[in-house]
Write a structure and sequence with these properties.
Layout (H helix, E strand, L loop, with lengths): L10 H26 L1 H15 L5 H34 L3 H24 L14 H15 L3 H8 L5
Length: about 160
């Protein structure tokens, strides 16, 4: 026989959600800093792409930069919404909430590093915080995700009453 599992939510879940909040704040701050200087960033990214690909039409280069910027903004919004959703579901003791947060954790870590890489040609025209904030976002997302896999959380979720 196993020992009964307390129905109270483990504190580590609340800690993980707090870390997710800091992650989202850092993500929003990064997006805002890029948005404030997006004209200069776009120009620098277009210049860099044009020098790396001299035979590509300027309109194609501009479209590529526009798509990259819009996609980055879209991913930020999706991560924000799904982390909120996953956090709510996890607090409701639904194991799928942890799956949602795990998926968002992986996307956030990979996306933050990819974003940092894509923006590398424009770092000189952006706020200096943009050079390290994506790494802060990635580390915080990894920590928040890892906290959701502690033994207390797993036992609490597995012992949830069926609905």
């Amino acid at each position: 026989m196993r020992a009964p599992v307390d129905d109270r939510r483990p504190r580590v879940i609340d800690l993980g959600i707090v870390v997710w909040v800091f992650t989202l704040v850092a993500l929003a701050a990064t997006a805002a800093l890029v948005a404030l200087d997006q004209g200069a960033a776009r120009s620098e990214l277009r210049r860099s792409l044009a020098s790396d690909n001299p035979t590509t039409a300027p309109r194609d280069i501009a479209n590529t930069v526009d798509i990259a910027m819009v996609a980055a903004g879209g991913v930020c919004v999706i991560v924000l919404l799904l982390v909120i959703y996953g956090s709510i579901r996890l607090r409701e003791r639904v194991i799928g909430g942890r799956g949602t947060l795990t998926t968002m954790g992986v996307i956030t870590v990979v996306g933050s590093i990819a974003f940092w890489t894509v923006l590398s040609p424009a770092r000189d025209v952006l706020n200096p915080a943009v050079t390290f904030l994506p790494f802060v976002v990635a580390v915080l997302a990894a920590v928040a995700t890892g906290l959701m896999f502690t033994g207390d959380v797993t036992r609490w979720l597995k012992a949830a009453p069926t609905r």
